[in-house]
C-alpha cells in the first residue's frame, strides 16, 4: 500500500552569505496513515527544516516528498502545521481564533461555532471562549494553537515542539489530551520534541536524527500498548528499556553542546 507520506532521499542546503549550509542529508522516511511519529535530535539538526519541506514552505535541494504517492507542490490544505510559537491573532477571541480556518473555508457560522465548541471542551478550555490570547496562560494558548489546526481535519499534522515552552506538569496534561484527540480522530502526526520521555510516551515510532547535517540515525518502535497513561508511563519496563536505547544514541549527538557548556564552567 502507498504510505500516506514518503520522504525519499531528501537533502536541503541553504546558502547564507555565500556559505553553503547542509541542513539535511538524504532523509528517507515513510509514514502510514494514522501513525504517530516523534522526531528527536540536537538543536540545529534540521528538524524544523524537515517540517517546512513537508508542508511545502521550502523545496528540497535533492530527493522528493510524496503525499499519497503524489509530489507535494506548494502549501497543501491536507497538511496542518502547529508551530512552536502560537500564531493566535491577538484581536480575536479564543473561539474566533479556533474557528478561523473554517471561516476562511466559508463554513456556516453556526456549524463552525459548534465544531470549535466541541474541541474547546475536549481540551478543557470551556468558559474561556470569549477571552483574548493575552488573557490566557501559555498552556491554554498552546491548546488553542493545536485545536485551531485540528478543526479543519488535516490528514497529516506536523507539530514543532508545541509543548516546548511549558512547565513539566502542563506538558503531561497536554500530552494526555493530545493522545485523547489523536485516538479519537486517528490522524497522522509528526511531532518534534527535545524531550525523550515525551517522544516515547506519544509515539508509535521515534525517529532519531544526527547533529548537522541532519540524517536519520535510527527509527525505534515503541512497544508500549495503547491507550497509554502518560502520568505513569515512566514506570513501565518497556518505557525504561526504550529510553535507555534512545539515550545511548542521542548522547553522542548532544555531546558537542555538553563540551561547550563544560568550557564556560569556572
Ligand atoms: N531559512 C534558512 N536560511 C538559512 N539557513 C537556515 C534556514 N532555516 C534553517 N537554516 C539552517 O539550517 C540548520 C537547521 O535548522 P533547523 O531550524 O531546521 O534546526 P532544528 O533542528 O529545528 O533546531 P532547533 O532544535 O534548535 O529548533 C541550521 O544550521 C540553520 O541555521
Ligand atoms: Mg526547530
Automatic annotation (TrEMBL):
InterPro entries: AAA+_ATPase, ABC_transporter-like_ATP-bd, ABC_transporter-like_CS, ABC_transporter_ATP-bind, P-loop_NTPase. Residues 5-236 form the ABC transporter domain. SMART domains: AAA. Signal peptide: none annotated. One of its GO terms (molecular function) is ATP hydrolysis activity. Pfam families: ABC_tran. PROSITE patterns: ABC_TRANSPORTER_1, ABC_TRANSPORTER_2. Keywords: ATP-binding, Nucleotide-binding, Transport. It comes from the Bacteria. The keyword Nucleotide-binding applies. Transmembrane segments: none annotated. This is ABC transporter ATP-binding protein.
Amino acid at each position: 500500500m502507498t504510505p500516506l507520506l514518503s520522504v525519499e532521499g531528501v537533502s536541503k542546503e541553504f546558502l547564507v552569505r555565500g556559505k553553503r549550509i547542509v541542513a539535511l542529508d538524504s532523509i528517507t522516511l515513510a509514514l502510514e496513515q494514522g501513525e504517530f511519529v516523534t522526531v528527536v535530535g540536537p538543536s540545529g539538526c534540521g528538524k524544523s527544516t524537515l517540517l517546512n519541506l513537508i508542508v511545502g514552505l521550502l523545496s528540497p535541494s535533492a530527493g522528493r516528498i510524496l503525499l499519497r504517492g503524489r509530489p507535494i507542490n506548494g502549501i497543501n490544505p491536507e497538511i496542518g502545521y502547529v508551530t512552536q510559537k502560537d500564531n493566535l491573532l491577538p484581536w480575536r477571541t479564543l473561539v474566533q481564533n479556533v474557528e478561523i480556518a473554517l471561516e476562511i473555508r466559508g463554513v456556516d457560522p453556526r456549524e463552525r461555532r459548534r465544531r470549535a465548541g466541541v474541541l474547546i471542551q475536549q481540551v478543557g478550555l470551556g468558559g474561556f471562549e470569549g477571552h483574548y490570547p493575552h488573557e490566557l496562560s501559555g498552556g491554554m494558548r498552546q491548546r488553542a494553537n493545536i485545536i485551531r489546526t485540528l478543526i479543519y481535519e488535516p490528514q497529516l499534522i506536523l507539530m514543532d515542539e508545541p509543548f516546548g515552552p511549558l512547565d513539566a506538569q502542563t506538558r503531561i496534561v497536554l500530552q494526555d489530551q493530545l493522545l485523547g484527540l489523536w485516538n479519537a480522530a486517528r490522524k497522522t502526526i509528526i511531532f518534534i520534541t527535545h524531550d525523550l520521555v515525551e517522544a516515547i510516551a506519544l509515539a508509535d515510532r521515534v525517529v532519531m536524527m544526527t547533529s548537522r547535517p541532519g540524517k536519520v540515525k535510527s527509527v525505534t518502535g515503541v512497544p508500549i500498548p495503547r491507550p497509554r497513561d502518560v502520568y505513569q508511563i515512566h514506570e513501565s519496563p518497556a518505557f525504561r528499556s526504550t529510553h535507555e536505547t534512545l539515550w545511548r544514541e542521542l548522547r553522542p549527538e548532544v555531546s558537542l553542546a555538553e563540551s561547550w557548556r563544560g568550557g564556560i564552567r569556572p
